[in-house]
Specification:
D-Maltodextrin-Binding Protein, domain 2, about 35% helix, 2 domains, alpha/beta, globular
């Protein structure tokens, strides 16, 4: 995982992600480099930006005192930037600090005391039943993301209805001609059960409709695998799969693929922020309810402030707080 993070960090820095965010700079010493339970939507209405923001100090600690942070793959860029902002460390030092185990395993790590703080997406149903996170943990929604559907750029289908998507992934619809496309069999890819995107797929899209068996809809083990599988399948336009918007747009964007609109609405930063896209869900900062390290609580509190929400936005995510000036994001 650390090798993956190192490669990811290099790519993100090349794209201009910096640890200095909307009015937030790391501490001067050391000197940082100049580059830098199931719901059909958010579990609570996003908060509005206060007219007079409550004062909150940006958390600060040494790298040695920095808490153990775990979480979802799509939250790695935020974790890297957060470590730099809080400790003033370099990019390489942040990379050495962050070692994410992916969504459901991160919940295990917090429950077992191997992590102090999670930056994470919603847990799968088995993990919710195991840990009861809504009652056991302090869950703070800090951003929004969306489940998005991806196909080859040569596929003439531009939009699908929610019923058509359920039909494809239940195995009921098997040919693109049934949804306005070419007369080609549909090759669909899904994710393993204990993954954040599969949780969103089951909760937001399929609901009570069962997914087709893996021999019909192939399981892609990682978030990058599903995108590569769609792009590589026969080099044709008949593959479809899904991911979360942030990852597919910012972390693993392949030029031969495109998003498919849902009910005519294309996933974008704007449509997610406005709540227009159908499949939106929060991601969280999660900490224990008891025996919380002060720095952990300070970080979680700060991420909910207006300044902290601008930090979320400057990392490229859609903030949970409404009413922020997000022009240019």
């Amino acid at each position: 995982m650390k090798k993956f993070i190192a490669l990811l960090l290099a790519a993100l820095m090349a794209c201009g992600l910096a640890a200095c965010v909307h009015g937030v700079t790391p501490d001067a010493t050391p000197e940082p480099t100049e580059e830098p339970i199931a719901t059909a939507g958010p579990t609570a209405a996003p908060t509005e930006a206060p007219e007079t923001p409550a004062p909150a100090e940006r958390p600060s600690c040494s790298l040695e005192e920095y808490p153990k942070v775990d979480g979802s793959t799509a939250n790695i860029p935020m974790a890297l930037a957060l470590a730099q902002v809080v400790t003033g460390c370099t990019e390489d030092e942040a990379n050495e600090t962050i070692d994410f185990s992916t969504t459901d395993y991160a919940y295990d790590a917090l429950a077992e005391g191997r992590a102090d703080l999670l930056l994470v997406y919603e847990a799968s149903k088995p993990t919710k039943e195991k840990h009861r996170p809504e009652t056991k943990f302090d869950m703070r929604p800090i951003g929004l993301d969306a489940l998005v559907f991806i196909t080859n750029r040569n596929n003439p289908v531009e939009t699908l209805t929610e019923a058509q998507i359920r039909g494809i992934f239940s195995g009921e619809i098997t040919n693109w001609s049934e949804v306005g496309g070419l007369d080609q069999p549909i090759k669909a890819f899904q994710r393993p059960e204990l993954s954040g995107s599969q949780t969103l797929m089951l909760d937001l899209v399929m609901k009570e409709v069962p997914m087709a068996d893996p021999d019909i809809i192939v399981v892609s083990n990682t978030m990058s695998d599903v995108i590569r599988d769609i792009a590589a399948y026969d080099a044709s336009a008949n593959a479809i799969g899904y991911s979360v918007y942030y990852y597919a747009q910012n972390m693993y964007n392949l030029p031969d693929l495109k998003f498919i609109a849902v009910e005519g609405t294309m996933p974008s930063y704007e449509s997610i922020n406005a709540g227009d896209y159908p499949y939106i869900n929060p991601f969280y900062a999660i900490l224990p309810r008891t025996n919380v390290k002060p720095i952990v609580k300070n970080i979680a509190d700060w991420l909910e402030t207006e300044e902290g929400q601008y930090f979320v936005a400057d990392c490229g995510y859609v903030p949970y707080m409404r009413g922020l000036d997000l022009s240019g994001k």
